[in-house]
Amino acid sequence: MRIKASMLPSEEGKAPWTSVLSGYIEQFDQNWSKQLRPAGKKDLNRLETFLSCGRSQLFTHEKSISGGRLHLPDEYRSFLEFAGGSGCEFETPDYWIHFYQISDVLKYFDAESDYALIGSLGVIDTNGLLIDLQQEANAPILEDLPGEQVFLSDSIKNLLFCGAYVQYGVKQFLNRIAAKPSADSSFQFNPCCRDAASYKLCQQSYRFWLTQLSEVLQKNHYERQWFSTSICEIWQKDDGCCILSQNTDCDGLYDTVVIDLFGLEKTSNIDFLIWLKENQWATETC
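RE: above sequence
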């Protein structure tokens, strides 16, 4: 049994990507787009006014030139025209993500920053989502952490499709197995505090696991999907799916990644499951 092509988000075709997103989700929830409202023209014009003249009003001439002009990125404009009046959100087993309505974006707008706060990402703590206003196209999304901004996704489009797949797309599968490494399968145990130094150690551990697991997945004929993000990688093959998520509520450096395996059959991910068990990963049928 193979996964239907329509059950994977596509970035091909001539239709606007927001139409593709709503069409994809409505395979699973027919009422999803009915809850959304576009941003009003007045609010869009106000945001563009902030972007075009905010710096010149706040900075000296020399600083304004060095900072560069701020833009409303193309994909973010499309999102606002699609759902900016209501905002939207996605919930996954490991985190939730909320995209603000335009009134909140305007309320939090900071003309001294190169970024706009457009949403929030949460598990235990809640962090802001920032979009880079220096880019007209392909504007990356960052997570606003204490003392630094960390790359999260290539674009808001990727982040939305990733959330849609993890909340809705996995409903096509009949079986789910979760896996975590055991305490003695990686680095020496070290509790993860939420200070900057410990966070960086956890990031290094997470990247270590991504590198190792990506090699194994490729050998087992999985392909990384275009809508993956830095905290949620989607790997797909003919009859199964593997999601690698960052565990921000980890017990130690060994515990920074969570694996969710979905399959059309009980044997869909059998080769990868064998590797996990041979390498001391704890698995649980959900």
